[in-house]
Amino acid sequence: MVETIEWTDEGVVLIDQTLLPLKERQVLLTDVHGVANAIQTMKIRGAPAIGVAAAMGLALVARQAATDDSMAFLQELEDARNQLAATRPTAVNLFWALDRMMRLARRTIDAGISVTVDRLVKEAQAIKAEDIKMCRAMGDHAVELFSEGATVLTHCNAGALATAGYGTALGVIRSAYREGRISRVFADETRPLLQGARLTAWELMQDEIPVTLITDNMAAFFMKEGRIDAVVTGADRIAGNGDVANKIGTYGVAVLAKYHGIPFYVAAPSSTFDLSLSSGREIPIERRHKDEVTHLFGIRIAPEGVEVENPAFDVTPVEMVTAIITERGILKPPTAEGIREMLGGG
Q1: Which of 167, 157, 205 is CA-nearest to residue 17?
Q2: Measured between alpha carbons, how far is 95 from 223 in angstroms, rounded to an integer?
Q3: Could you tell me the CATH number of the domain that includes residue 78?
Q4: CA gap 270, 124 in Å, rounded
Q5: Whether residue 132 sits in one domain with residue 150
Q6: 133-166 pLDDT, tens per residue?
Q7: Tally of domains in the chain
Q8: Among 4, 71, 193, 323, which residue's CB has the most CB atoms within a 10 Å radius?
Q9: Distances from the Cα of 324 to the Cα of 28, 125, 250, 318, 327, angstroms
């Protein structure tokens, strides 16, 4: 299993996902600026993974702080928190991890800066460990959803690379494949950055799970042929009513699944829910640079001067979601009441 991110004495070590699958290269990040850049440029991506990276970024700031003044120390952390929070607006795990670290810092600062530094370093590593544990629990819960030998379609990459390890959607797939419930995965390319082609297909091949790569506009064809039994995706933010924000194109896949009577499952840890938002209409949608659409691997594929829009995420209404798989159990069907009950009982 690939290790997406690691805390070391030298700094934060992560796989540069922009180079996969052609090159497998690790990068060492020694300060918060490097971590913020890695998140912004998608060297590390996936909601749970960037939450872990952000927590480790704050731990770096704490370890490197050159002050004996508690208030100045907290201000350094707050400034770093704001820098990291500005990198990707849609994935709520980023803010969840940052706020968890800041609450710990404020709670422990009276014991001394050195105590707070030690606690923050341990907390960042705990967030990573918890993420892996949650992903494995999601996989265990989800096995029951699939009939023996099912084929599934997944969109984007919600695997070990998008988490601290194991994966959300791909964690579900890994567990179900191990139990004989899934026989093959269809991975769509996921334009514009091809996370499905570059990352999901690579991960599944590493695990020797049968995978078929298709372009984004082939999903309806294979659904109509009866070759897809279920869809499994991850999520970057889930509103209080169950509306799901995920990589652009997810909504289209959900519409196709609904039309063809195919179950559409979302796998996400409880940290992905945002009860401050009543519906998906309130979820902020990141807009990325036009070059991601007009260029492919640095080569221009569109006319100079063409107008471009590049939303990175879309929102799938809860009515199209068959079930949401969490580490605490399965919400089937997902409802606002069920979400509140699940989170309140955690």
Answers
A1: 157
A2: 36
A3: 1.20.120.420
A4: 18
A5: no
A6: 999 999 999 999 999 999 999 999 999 999 999 9
A7: 2
A8: 4
A9: 35, 27, 14, 10, 10
CA distance 161 to 16: 10
Say whether 246 sits in a helix, a strand or coil. strand
Residue type, 323: A
Residue 345 phi, psi dihedral angles, 5° rounding: -95, 10
The CA-based angle 61-65-68, given to 5 degrees, is 145
Residue 26 domain boundaries = 5-136
Pairwise CA distance, residues 205 & 174, whole Å: 12
| Same domain assignment for residues 83 and 155 | no
Distance CA 322, CA 263 (A): 6
Is 9 part of the annotated catalytic residue set? no
Q: What is the pLDDT of residues 205-234, one digit of tens each?
A: 999 999 999 999 999 999 999 999 999 999
Structure tokens at 227: 């070759």
Write down the catalytic residue from 131, 216, 229, 236.
236
Give CA angle at 188 (187, 190), nearest 5°.
130
Lowest model confidence (mean pLDDT) among 80-89, 192-201, 337-346 = 337-346
Side-chain half-sphere of 2: how many Cα atoms within 13 Å? 29
Secondary structure E strands in the chain: 5-7, 12-15, 26-29, 150-154, 182-188, 211-214, 230-233, 237-239, 244-247, 264-267, 273-274, 295-296, 299-300, 313-316, 323-326, 329-331
Residues 207, 161 share a domain: yes
Q: 316 has which bridge partners? A: 244
Please provide the DSSP assignment of 138-196 as one string: HHHHHGGGS-TTEEEEE-S--BGGGSSSSBSHHHHHHHHHHTTSEEEEEEE--TTTTHI
